[in-house]
Amino acid sequence: MINLIFIIKAILIGIVEGITEFIPVSSTGHMIIIGNLIGFKDGVIPSYLYTKEYIDTFEVVIQLGAILAIVVLYWDKIKNSLKNFSPKKPKSGFRFWFNIFIGSIPAGVLGILFHDKIKEKLFNPITVTAALLVGAFWMLYAEKKYRKKYKTRYIEDVNLKQAFLIGCFQCLALWPGMSRSASTIIGAWICGLSTVAAAEFSFFLALPAMVGASGISLLKADIINFNLIQVIALTIGFIVSFVVALIVVDGFISFLKKKPMRIFAMYRILIGIILSILIITKII
């Protein structure tokens, strides 16, 4: 029974990751909150299952599942960019991936420098709730002011300056609950990208950041010492996150072509209010 409950919790966290990783509501924030609510965190009994190292590794592995969904959905674009990689060609793959590289630098540098301090100070329900609310109101303001003023319709037309500035906005996502997707999409609006281009650039900008962070975490993890039920839960969580992210990302892009993003801001405000009540009443 204990093992079954453990796997069910892993499935729930995988679903949460798949749904929230690429939409502007903060996957890290949701995993912290849901993990607290269902008891999927280190220190929970039985301790041989809920070790800190395992929980950290689990979160990394399911993020890789979400990343794989982006690779699958955008495989044709990735393949064509590699075929057309010459710097001399217009809208070349080299230019595209160099923009992604430049956009990844700011958050990469700050993440390396302050990773431990961020984990220590910001990974808790109070800071996540604050970030959800701050991000929500900023999203409402930015959408009203910038969304319809775009000059760059497609991600292939993003220039170096835009890429770097969007990367600077991505740094805000180091505050759990702010949302990497929300931060980069808002930054892209301000830099003159259309909403679909902003979302797609956000997806690709996530690849090096998440693969890099995941790679470092996996190198530090001692997976060989995980027990069988932990490995099973890890595998199921990865698959669930991948499948759910496939569905959600495709639907998210279709949604953005027709609808405003304020629905996500309103959701963040609602969740922020509920979490504030739960924190005040010491439920979490």
TrEMBL record:
It catalyses: di-trans,octa-cis-undecaprenyl diphosphate + H2O = di-trans,octa-cis-undecaprenyl phosphate + phosphate + H(+). It is an enzyme of class 3 (hydrolase). It is found in: Cell membrane. Keywords: Antibiotic resistance, Cell membrane, Cell shape, Cell wall biogenesis/degradation, Hydrolase, Membrane, Peptidoglycan synthesis, Transmembrane, Transmembrane helix. It comes from the Bacteria. Its EC number is 3.6.1.27. Its main location: membrane. The chain crosses the membrane at residues 12-34, 54-75, 96-116, 122-141, 162-178, 228-249, 261-280. One of its GO terms (molecular function) is undecaprenyl-diphosphatase activity. Bacitracin is thought to be involved in the inhibition of peptidoglycan synthesis by sequestering undecaprenyl diphosphate, thereby reducing the pool of lipid carrier available. Catalyzes the dephosphorylation of undecaprenyl diphosphate (UPP). Confers resistance to bacitracin. Belongs to the UppP family. This is Undecaprenyl-diphosphatase. The lineage of its organism: Bacteria, Bacillati, Bacillota, Clostridia, Eubacteriales.
